[in-house]
Amino acid sequence: MDLTIPVDKLSFIIMKAREYDAKVPTASQSRGPVEDYEGVGDVLEDRGDDSTRAEVHHLIDDLNDDEAVELVALSWIGRGTYSSDDWAEACNTARDERGSHSTADYLLGTPLIADYLEEGLAAFNKRVDTI
Fold it and tell me: Residue 79 contacts by C-beta under 8 Å, 6 or more apart in sequence?
């Protein structure tokens, strides 16, 4: 498997997606004993004005068509829909199923997307670069 998307770019997307995945409901939606202290956990709260989702969305939207297809295929391999031996099939399916929906919306709507992408890379004995 030869990725069109550079591993450093993929690593950055995974890192940002992991930040997005870590978001929790705001304190007004869910309060626990630890959250009663003002400011605790604010950085992890999913606020409407938070730029994390927008940043990841933008990173994915900036990918060319081949990179976007590979990102979807990699996520499918990471979640076990396909095996690494099925790379070409996963890419072809991702290309064929690409419609009017945004790749970024699709991927960001997938819980644990950062884990799936990282597992997809691991299936090819590749690691996320530390940034």
Answer: 112, 116, 119
